DNA sequence: ATACCTGCAAAGTATTTGCACGAAA
DNA sequence: TTTCGTGCAAATACTTTGCAGGTAT
């Protein structure tokens, strides 16, 4: 996996390329995305930034995550019954295991998706840009907690 | 594929089993779900019912889709940047091709997912209840429209 | 008769937008 | 200096909830 620093560099380069100004808030948001090994939602990102920027607003976080997403440098993982979750440390589509109880998201390794992808393009006539493969269920911890 | 009538029967039976009253509005919502070959959102369901029930409220549609979903008789397809979409005519998880421009959703046939599923359970310790595999891109029509 | 449902309006969430001031280039 | 970005507050969109009257069983 690319290092957090590499990811951050890449994001800031893309911001420059696209003539976005490198404000401290924007950089802080990019850093949180690049460094996160979990899959934070907007509010979590906001809370991680607040210690360094006590006056930052939620709107700024929304705006900048959207900017970075529009450049394709962060992926949104939408899970039913909760706001968007974001993954900025890797950009290749890969499967997730989502716990429906505690909302934990675990990254899985991609598996022969390419063959599948080609056959979908052929069958549907779609030009496929990305995909998602997510498994839903209960993680080990929640299985135990439920019994107790 | 199960016929719409079979699907509707199954849903009404499950409603009875769970002691839900069979109100005309509830039945109308179940029928729309059972008959839809597309993937309507709440408002679309509402609009399809309105001709027969001009005074039905959006809240009733929300409530009943939720009831039917809680019995596992309709699947929710969440796509980023739009409200929930619902699929009531088939219950087996299967892949979709989603057009990011016009939001059309096309059903695909499931493909050797079971092997993949087992290895995920083994690797993560999750108890997997369902999954989703969705491909995003541009449908043929939107590809042409974009060029024009 | 009873418990559940409905429509309406109000309240919640989550997210976006208008604006005046401030900061990056 | 110019253009863009920020924080704030208001607006929007989507969904849920409280309630009084109505309906299925």
Q: Quick summary of this structure?
A:
By secondary structure, chain A is α+β, with helices and mostly antiparallel strands. Helices cover 45% and strands 17% of the residues of chain A. A three-stranded mixed beta sheet of chain A has the order 4-3-5. Chain A has a two-stranded antiparallel sheet with strand order 1-2.
Q: Care to describe what's here?
A:
- With 148 residues, the first copy, chain A, is of the alpha+beta class.
- Chain A is built from 6 helices and 5 strands, in the order H-H-H-H-E-E-E-E-H-E-H.
- In chain A, the strands form 2 sheets. In chain A, strands 4-3-5 form a 3-stranded mixed sheet. A two-stranded antiparallel sheet of chain A has the order 1-2.
- In chain A, a hairpin with a 5-residue loop joins strand 3 and strand 4 (105-107).
- The longest helix of chain A is centred in the first third of the chain and has 14 residues, at 4-17.
- Chain A starts with a helix and ends with a helix.
- The mean pLDDT of chain A is 90.
- The interface between A and B is medium-sized, with 35 and 35 residues.
- The structure holds a DNA duplex (25 and 25 nucleotides).
Span from first to last CA of chain A? Answer: 38 Å
What share of the residues of chain A lie within helices? Answer: 40-55%
Largest sheet of chain A: 3 strands, mixed
Name the assembly state: homodimer
Features:
homodimer, 5 strands, 3-stranded mixed sheet, 148 residues, DNA-binding, alpha+beta, 6 helices, globular, two-stranded antiparallel sheet
